[in-house]
Amino acid sequence: MSYQTKIAFLFVAIGASLWGIIGYFVKELAEIGYTPLQIVFLRAISAFIFFFLWIIFYRPGLLKLQLKDIWYFFGTGVLSVSFFNWCYFTTIQHSSLAIAAILLYTAPVFVLLISLFVFKERLTWQKITALFITFLGCMFVSGIFSGNFSELSWTGLLTGLGAGFGYSLYSIFGKLASKTYKTLTISFYTFLFAMIALFPISGITSSETVAFHSHALLYTAGLGLFPTVLAYWFYTQGLNQVEASKASIVSTVEPVVATIMGLFLYQESVTLIQVTGILLVLSAVLLIQERKTKPVMNTSL
What we know:
Blueprint: H1 3-19, H2 22-32, H3 36-58, H4 70-94, H5 97-104, H6 107-118, H7 125-142, H8 154-177, H9 183-202, H10 216-239, H11 244-250, H12 253-265, H13 272-287
Helix pairs in contact: 1-10, 1-12, 2-10, 3-9, 3-10, 4-5, 4-8, 4-9, 5-7, 5-8, 6-8, 6-11, 7-13, 8-11, 9-10, 12-13
């Protein structure tokens, strides 16, 4: 495996790991009184501002966009970021957190299937095995074996699969956009479209919205910077040189990081089954890193 490819895998893993800490910021904002949809909107607008400032000071030319390519960012911002978040929170309302997490991480399966047709990626036994190990590992990490699938309604099942599908679309549309645009451009327009789509349905300006809290701005800034701006930048940068199906499998380190964060930050207990799940996910990530790769493109900003 080339040095550039190793760095690309590392970037994808870093991005997914940063996604794994999102629970801290979401939990704090929820404690203040914001609804899940409002938190998603706050995440989008905060990320949009950070990306805008980054581009303005770094290279304003990255804001250039061809109208014919708008559908890329409608895909990443609306069909992926906005849609999967709505589906995910709806699933949580109709089932348990464990079941919602399992259904969300059907995303690599969707990515693999779509990539077969869109990117003509090969379906290998290596990928199939890695997918199976990943899904099994996520089941262990979520603690699903201590729950009961009877609590899952048809609504929860459909929206859960919708969350997984929406989550997978970022890898697809992001990969397509990366052929023409730099990482910062993709990330900026992703959250611009997400912000526009979420504003009218978030209820952020309604009379029922909680009063401004002194810590809300700090948590919103942290939510927009760490598990969003930096996470999407690292993930999209790595996606330039890694097959979409492989990147989506590597991204499943996210629930592993979330579990570890809960252990050390909130003193949440971790069972032997969850430890086994963590090891399975990490094994799947190592499994898909082939030694021989094709030449890769330059991913400099």
